[in-house]
Write a structure and sequence with these properties.
With 73 residues, this protein is an alpha/beta fold. It has one domain. The chain has two helices and three strands, in the order βαββα.
Length: 73
Protein backbone atom coordinates (compact mmCIF):
# COMPACT_ATOMS: atom_id res chain seq x y z
CA UNK A 1 0.00 0.00 0.00
CA UNK A 2 2.90 2.35 0.52
CA UNK A 3 3.34 2.63 -3.26
CA UNK A 4 -0.25 3.70 -3.88
CA UNK A 5 -1.82 7.15 -3.88
CA UNK A 6 -5.04 6.00 -2.28
CA UNK A 7 -7.72 3.40 -1.70
CA UNK A 8 -11.12 2.94 -3.32
CA UNK A 9 -13.63 1.16 -1.09
CA UNK A 10 -16.57 -0.44 -2.90
CA UNK A 11 -19.45 -0.20 -0.42
CA UNK A 12 -22.08 -2.93 -0.43
CA UNK A 13 -24.40 -4.36 2.23
CA UNK A 14 -21.69 -6.02 4.36
CA UNK A 15 -18.60 -3.94 3.61
CA UNK A 16 -18.82 -2.09 6.93
CA UNK A 17 -18.27 -5.37 8.82
CA UNK A 18 -15.24 -6.62 6.88
CA UNK A 19 -12.08 -6.77 8.99
CA UNK A 20 -9.88 -6.54 5.88
CA UNK A 21 -11.72 -3.43 4.66
CA UNK A 22 -11.45 -1.80 8.08
CA UNK A 23 -7.72 -2.60 8.17
CA UNK A 24 -7.17 -1.10 4.70
CA UNK A 25 -9.06 2.06 5.65
CA UNK A 26 -7.01 2.44 8.84
CA UNK A 27 -3.74 1.78 7.00
CA UNK A 28 -4.65 4.25 4.25
CA UNK A 29 -5.40 6.92 6.86
CA UNK A 30 -2.17 6.12 8.72
CA UNK A 31 -0.17 6.63 5.53
CA UNK A 32 -2.00 9.87 4.74
CA UNK A 33 -3.25 8.61 1.38
CA UNK A 34 -6.43 9.53 -0.43
CA UNK A 35 -9.60 7.54 0.16
CA UNK A 36 -12.80 7.21 -1.87
CA UNK A 37 -15.90 5.17 -1.09
CA UNK A 38 -18.28 4.12 -3.86
CA UNK A 39 -21.83 2.95 -3.11
CA UNK A 40 -22.15 0.08 -5.60
CA UNK A 41 -25.87 -0.74 -5.51
CA UNK A 42 -28.01 1.63 -7.56
CA UNK A 43 -30.70 3.24 -5.44
CA UNK A 44 -29.45 1.81 -2.14
CA UNK A 45 -27.33 3.43 0.52
CA UNK A 46 -25.27 1.03 2.58
CA UNK A 47 -23.61 1.66 5.93
CA UNK A 48 -20.25 3.40 5.58
CA UNK A 49 -17.31 1.61 7.20
CA UNK A 50 -15.69 3.24 10.25
CA UNK A 51 -12.82 5.51 9.26
CA UNK A 52 -14.23 6.46 5.86
CA UNK A 53 -15.68 9.97 5.86
CA UNK A 54 -19.16 10.36 4.37
CA UNK A 55 -17.81 13.35 2.43
CA UNK A 56 -15.55 10.92 0.56
CA UNK A 57 -18.39 8.60 -0.50
CA UNK A 58 -20.15 8.87 -3.85
CA UNK A 59 -22.62 6.87 -5.92
CA UNK A 60 -21.31 4.56 -8.62
CA UNK A 61 -20.84 7.06 -11.46
CA UNK A 62 -17.78 6.70 -13.65
CA UNK A 63 -17.63 10.42 -14.39
CA UNK A 64 -17.59 11.29 -10.68
CA UNK A 65 -15.04 8.58 -9.94
CA UNK A 66 -12.72 9.87 -12.69
CA UNK A 67 -13.13 13.43 -11.42
CA UNK A 68 -12.16 12.42 -7.86
CA UNK A 69 -9.22 10.31 -9.03
CA UNK A 70 -7.89 13.24 -11.07
CA UNK A 71 -7.37 15.12 -7.78
CA UNK A 72 -5.08 12.37 -6.41
CA UNK A 73 -1.78 14.03 -7.29
Amino acid sequence: MSRTKGTIVLIGPTTYASDSVLWRIAETACQGHFMLGVQINHGKTHRIPVGLSASNVIRCNFGQIAKRLATWR
